[in-house]
Amino acid sequence: MPCGMNLELGWEGLGRIIRSKDKSRSIEAQDEIHVDVRMLPILSEAEMKEILQRVLESEGWTQNADGTLSKEIGDATATLSPESDKIVLAARQQETVKVTEQRSFEKDTTDTEVEATLDQGADAKLDALAKAREEALSRQAVARLLAAEPTLRETVQTALNKVYREALEQRAKQLGAVERIREEGTPDGNYEVTIVVRG
Q1: Which residues pair with 18 in a beta bridge?
Q2: 193 in helix, strand or coil?
Q3: Is residue 29 helix, strand or coil?
Q4: What pTM was estimated for this model as a whole?
Protein backbone atom coordinates (compact mmCIF):
# COMPACT_ATOMS: atom_id res chain seq x y z
CA MET A 1 0.00 0.00 0.00
CA PRO A 2 1.62 3.30 -1.05
CA CYS A 3 2.42 5.81 1.64
CA GLY A 4 4.15 9.16 1.47
CA MET A 5 5.84 11.87 3.49
CA ASN A 6 6.78 15.39 2.44
CA LEU A 7 9.84 17.26 3.62
CA GLU A 8 10.37 20.92 2.78
CA LEU A 9 13.67 22.76 3.10
CA GLY A 10 14.07 26.41 2.18
CA TRP A 11 17.11 28.11 0.70
CA GLU A 12 17.07 31.74 1.72
CA GLY A 13 17.93 34.12 -1.07
CA LEU A 14 17.91 31.55 -3.84
CA GLY A 15 14.17 31.45 -4.32
CA ARG A 16 14.10 27.67 -4.53
CA ILE A 17 12.80 24.95 -2.24
CA ILE A 18 13.66 21.27 -2.03
CA ARG A 19 10.79 18.87 -1.53
CA SER A 20 10.86 15.11 -1.25
CA LYS A 21 8.32 12.33 -1.15
CA ASP A 22 8.68 8.76 0.10
CA LYS A 23 6.59 5.96 -1.37
CA SER A 24 6.47 2.25 -0.65
CA ARG A 25 4.74 -0.78 -2.08
CA SER A 26 4.32 -4.39 -0.98
CA ILE A 27 5.31 -6.87 -3.66
CA GLU A 28 5.18 -10.62 -3.80
CA ALA A 29 6.07 -13.47 -6.09
CA GLN A 30 4.63 -16.97 -5.98
CA ASP A 31 5.36 -20.11 -7.90
CA GLU A 32 4.06 -23.62 -7.55
CA ILE A 33 4.52 -27.22 -8.60
CA HIS A 34 1.57 -29.56 -9.12
CA VAL A 35 2.00 -33.21 -8.22
CA ASP A 36 -0.73 -35.65 -9.27
CA VAL A 37 -1.71 -38.26 -6.68
CA ARG A 38 -2.84 -41.51 -8.31
CA MET A 39 -3.74 -44.52 -6.21
CA LEU A 40 -4.37 -48.10 -7.25
CA PRO A 41 -8.07 -48.95 -6.78
CA ILE A 42 -7.55 -51.60 -4.11
CA LEU A 43 -10.69 -50.39 -2.31
CA SER A 44 -13.34 -47.93 -3.44
CA GLU A 45 -12.17 -44.43 -4.40
CA ALA A 46 -13.79 -42.93 -1.29
CA GLU A 47 -12.11 -45.48 1.00
CA MET A 48 -8.70 -44.89 -0.59
CA LYS A 49 -9.07 -41.12 -0.16
CA GLU A 50 -10.14 -41.51 3.45
CA ILE A 51 -7.11 -43.67 4.23
CA LEU A 52 -4.75 -41.21 2.49
CA GLN A 53 -6.15 -38.26 4.43
CA ARG A 54 -5.89 -40.14 7.71
CA VAL A 55 -2.30 -41.21 6.98
CA LEU A 56 -1.25 -37.65 6.07
CA GLU A 57 -2.90 -36.22 9.20
CA SER A 58 -0.96 -38.74 11.30
CA GLU A 59 2.21 -37.39 9.66
CA GLY A 60 1.54 -33.79 10.62
CA TRP A 61 -0.65 -32.51 7.80
CA THR A 62 -3.33 -30.05 8.95
CA GLN A 63 -7.00 -30.30 8.00
CA ASN A 64 -8.30 -26.96 6.65
CA ALA A 65 -11.86 -25.63 6.58
CA ASP A 66 -12.06 -25.96 2.78
CA GLY A 67 -11.38 -29.71 2.89
CA THR A 68 -7.71 -29.46 1.96
CA LEU A 69 -4.77 -30.78 3.97
CA SER A 70 -1.56 -28.77 4.20
CA LYS A 71 1.94 -29.02 5.58
CA GLU A 72 5.09 -26.91 5.50
CA ILE A 73 7.79 -28.70 3.50
CA GLY A 74 11.07 -26.82 3.84
CA ASP A 75 10.35 -23.22 2.81
CA ALA A 76 7.22 -24.13 0.84
CA THR A 77 3.65 -25.16 1.60
CA ALA A 78 2.16 -28.39 0.29
CA THR A 79 -1.64 -28.58 -0.05
CA LEU A 80 -3.62 -31.73 -0.88
CA SER A 81 -6.82 -30.97 -2.81
CA PRO A 82 -10.20 -31.89 -1.24
CA GLU A 83 -10.50 -34.63 -3.89
CA SER A 84 -7.11 -36.04 -2.76
CA ASP A 85 -5.95 -36.22 -6.38
CA LYS A 86 -3.40 -33.40 -6.49
CA ILE A 87 -0.85 -31.73 -4.25
CA VAL A 88 0.19 -28.15 -4.93
CA LEU A 89 3.60 -27.16 -3.59
CA ALA A 90 3.73 -23.36 -3.37
CA ALA A 91 6.45 -20.92 -2.38
CA ARG A 92 5.73 -17.26 -1.79
CA GLN A 93 8.22 -14.44 -1.33
CA GLN A 94 7.11 -11.05 -0.05
CA GLU A 95 8.77 -7.74 0.74
CA THR A 96 8.17 -3.99 0.83
CA VAL A 97 10.14 -1.71 -1.50
CA LYS A 98 10.65 2.00 -0.75
CA VAL A 99 11.85 4.95 -2.81
CA THR A 100 12.41 8.64 -2.19
CA GLU A 101 11.87 11.28 -4.88
CA GLN A 102 13.59 14.59 -4.17
CA ARG A 103 13.56 17.68 -6.38
CA SER A 104 14.08 21.41 -6.16
CA PHE A 105 11.32 23.82 -7.20
CA GLU A 106 10.93 27.54 -7.71
CA LYS A 107 9.61 29.09 -4.53
CA ASP A 108 6.37 30.15 -6.22
CA THR A 109 5.53 26.62 -7.50
CA THR A 110 2.09 25.61 -6.26
CA ASP A 111 1.64 22.70 -3.87
CA THR A 112 -0.47 20.93 -6.50
CA GLU A 113 2.33 21.14 -9.08
CA VAL A 114 4.91 20.02 -6.53
CA GLU A 115 2.77 17.04 -5.49
CA ALA A 116 2.10 16.01 -9.08
CA THR A 117 5.79 16.19 -10.03
CA LEU A 118 6.93 14.31 -6.93
CA ASP A 119 4.22 11.66 -7.38
CA GLN A 120 5.16 11.11 -11.01
CA GLY A 121 8.86 10.75 -10.22
CA ALA A 122 8.30 8.53 -7.17
CA ASP A 123 5.86 6.30 -9.08
CA ALA A 124 8.33 5.83 -11.94
CA LYS A 125 11.13 4.89 -9.50
CA LEU A 126 8.80 2.61 -7.55
CA ASP A 127 7.60 0.82 -10.69
CA ALA A 128 11.16 0.16 -11.85
CA LEU A 129 12.33 -1.03 -8.43
CA ALA A 130 9.23 -3.20 -7.90
CA LYS A 131 9.69 -4.90 -11.30
CA ALA A 132 13.34 -5.69 -10.59
CA ARG A 133 12.57 -7.00 -7.10
CA GLU A 134 9.61 -9.09 -8.30
CA GLU A 135 11.93 -10.85 -10.77
CA ALA A 136 14.43 -11.52 -7.97
CA LEU A 137 11.67 -12.74 -5.64
CA SER A 138 10.36 -15.04 -8.37
CA ARG A 139 13.80 -16.62 -8.74
CA GLN A 140 13.96 -17.10 -4.96
CA ALA A 141 10.51 -18.74 -4.93
CA VAL A 142 11.56 -21.17 -7.68
CA ALA A 143 14.74 -22.05 -5.77
CA ARG A 144 12.68 -22.77 -2.64
CA LEU A 145 10.34 -25.01 -4.64
CA LEU A 146 13.18 -26.95 -6.22
CA ALA A 147 14.71 -27.50 -2.77
CA ALA A 148 11.40 -28.71 -1.27
CA GLU A 149 10.17 -30.91 -4.14
CA PRO A 150 12.31 -34.02 -3.43
CA THR A 151 11.17 -34.01 0.22
CA LEU A 152 7.54 -33.70 -0.88
CA ARG A 153 7.83 -36.60 -3.32
CA GLU A 154 9.48 -38.77 -0.65
CA THR A 155 6.77 -37.81 1.88
CA VAL A 156 3.99 -38.65 -0.58
CA GLN A 157 5.58 -41.99 -1.51
CA THR A 158 5.95 -42.97 2.15
CA ALA A 159 2.31 -42.03 2.77
CA LEU A 160 1.14 -44.01 -0.28
CA ASN A 161 3.05 -47.08 0.94
CA LYS A 162 1.12 -46.86 4.23
CA VAL A 163 -2.14 -46.34 2.35
CA TYR A 164 -1.55 -49.42 0.18
CA ARG A 165 -0.57 -51.53 3.17
CA GLU A 166 -3.77 -50.62 5.02
CA ALA A 167 -5.95 -50.98 1.92
CA LEU A 168 -4.47 -54.39 1.10
CA GLU A 169 -5.01 -55.57 4.66
CA GLN A 170 -8.65 -54.42 4.56
CA ARG A 171 -9.14 -56.10 1.18
CA ALA A 172 -7.54 -59.31 2.42
CA LYS A 173 -9.89 -59.38 5.42
CA GLN A 174 -12.80 -59.23 2.98
CA LEU A 175 -11.46 -62.37 1.30
CA GLY A 176 -10.80 -64.42 4.45
CA ALA A 177 -8.78 -64.63 7.65
CA VAL A 178 -5.37 -62.93 7.44
CA GLU A 179 -2.67 -65.36 8.61
CA ARG A 180 0.35 -63.08 8.24
CA ILE A 181 1.60 -59.87 6.67
CA ARG A 182 5.18 -59.35 5.53
CA GLU A 183 6.56 -55.93 4.49
CA GLU A 184 9.82 -55.27 2.70
CA GLY A 185 11.47 -52.07 1.58
CA THR A 186 14.48 -51.85 -0.70
CA PRO A 187 17.17 -49.15 -0.71
CA ASP A 188 15.97 -47.93 -4.13
CA GLY A 189 12.55 -47.05 -2.68
CA ASN A 190 10.54 -50.13 -3.67
CA TYR A 191 8.03 -51.36 -1.15
CA GLU A 192 6.49 -54.83 -1.07
CA VAL A 193 3.66 -56.21 1.07
CA THR A 194 2.83 -59.92 1.15
CA ILE A 195 -0.44 -60.94 2.79
CA VAL A 196 -1.32 -64.58 3.35
CA VAL A 197 -5.07 -65.18 3.62
CA ARG A 198 -6.75 -68.39 4.78
CA GLY A 199 -9.98 -68.84 2.78
Answers
A1: 9, 104
A2: strand
A3: strand
A4: 0.71
Number of domains composing the chain: 1
Mean pLDDT for the stretch of residues 35-45: 91
Residues with Cβ within 8 Å of residue 77, at least 6 apart in sequence = 70, 71, 89, 90, 91, 92
pLDDT for 171 equals: 83
- pLDDT, tens only, 84-136: 999 999 999 999 999 999 998 888 889 899 999 999 999 999 999 999 999 99
Report whether 151 contacts 59 (CB < 8 A).
Answer: no
With DSSP H G I counted as helix, E B as strand and the rest as coil, what are the percentages for the chain, rounded to 5? 40, 40, 20
Distance, CA of 107 to CA of 124 (rounded, Å): 24
- Domain extent, residue 148, equals 6-165
Please name which of 152, 164, 151, 155 lies closest in space to residue 191, comparing C-alpha atoms.
164
Maximum distance among all Cα pairs of the chain, rounded to whole angstroms: 107
At position 140, the amino acid (one-letter code) is: Q
Q: What is the DSSP string of 121-155?
A: HHHHHHHHHHHHHHHHHHHHHHHHHHHHHHHHHHH
For residue 174, being part of any structural domain is answered with: no
Contact criterion met (CB below 8 Å) for 75 and 144: yes
For the chain, the first-to-last Cα distance in angstroms comes to: 70
Q: Return phi, psi of residue 104, to 5°.
A: -105, 145
pLDDT of 5 reads 53
Residue 68 lies in a domain: yes
Q: Any idea of the CA torsion for 81, 85, 91, 92, to the nearest 10 degrees?
A: -30
